[in-house]
Design brief:
eight-stranded parallel β-barrel
């Protein structure tokens, strides 16, 4: 089953988004940020979905060298784990970034410290978390497969669109990912376009997802994009 991220309905309240998606899938990833930030498990708990959560990321940096920001970022993610534990959901987190090119080594130390604390919080809440790869953006960690050792062979979420933008999709597909985001682009912008509308070789990607038995999450920006993506998945005989 292909999941759907609530990002396609981020202009609607979370309850409305979940109501709309209830007729389209039984697997939803909540974009736990902005208007869909989960203060509790109350609203998601009203529905019968299988869930994953994309932990808050816009104001979070687990690699910050400013210790109050790093600690607060870990706290925010730990709160997401608590809610995920109630929903029996897995969690996706971002890997953080170095605000200064010259400070990458210090940021890496901060990242490693955060991952240790996040791992403890995940264990305490009984949840599994995945670190998502980023596009090739300046300062961010995990833009290339070479960064994978930073995460001690931990669980990763392969974002296919991000990997394609980094020019390293084939190498990323070789990593042991167990969660996956799918969306398309033309190699120049992180557009989160419908599957099949850009330049990604979906025949190859979907074949590998089938082999790995990974249920991807469709992370696009509109319901129309969801529907057109499902049509392409059906064309490739991939269950949606």
């Amino acid at each position: 089953m292909t999941g759907i991220s609530t990002s396609c309905l981020h202009d609607r309240p979370l309850e409305d988004a979940l109501e709309i998606l209830s007729g389209m899938t039984d697997f939803v990833e909540i974009m736990d940020d902005g208007p869909h930030y989960c203060h509790s498990a109350e609203i998601p708990g009203q529905f019968s979905f299988r869930y994953s959560l994309h932990a808050p990321s816009r104001g979070v940096n687990i690699a910050s060298t400013l210790e109050p920001i790093r600690r607060a970022s870990v706290e925010v993610i730990s709160e997401a784990f608590t809610i995920a534990g109630e929903l029996n959901a897995k969690v996706v987190i971002h890997p953080g970034y170095s605000a200064w090119t010259e400070g990458k080594e210090l940021s890496l130390l901060a990242l490693r410290r955060s991952l240790t604390e996040i791992g403890t919080a995940a264990d305490d809440s009984g949840v599994t978390f995945f670190v998502e790869n980023m596009p090739k953006w300046p300062y961010f960690f995990f833009c290339t497969p070479e960064d994978y050792p930073y995460f001690d062979d931990g669980n990763i979420c392969l974002d296919v669109g991000h990997a394609f933008l980094s020019g390293a999709l084939d190498s990323f597909l070789g990593l042991p990912f167990a969660h996956c985001h799918i969306h398309d682009n033309d190699g120049t912008e992180d557009s989160h376009s419908p599957v099949g509308s850009g330049d990604i070789d979906w025949k190859n990607v979907l074949s590998i997802l089938k082999q790995r038995k990974v249920e991807p999450v469709l992370e696009v920006r509109s319901l129309d994009a969801v529907e057109s993506s499902f049509a392409v998945l059906k064309f490739f005989d991939f269950e949606s």
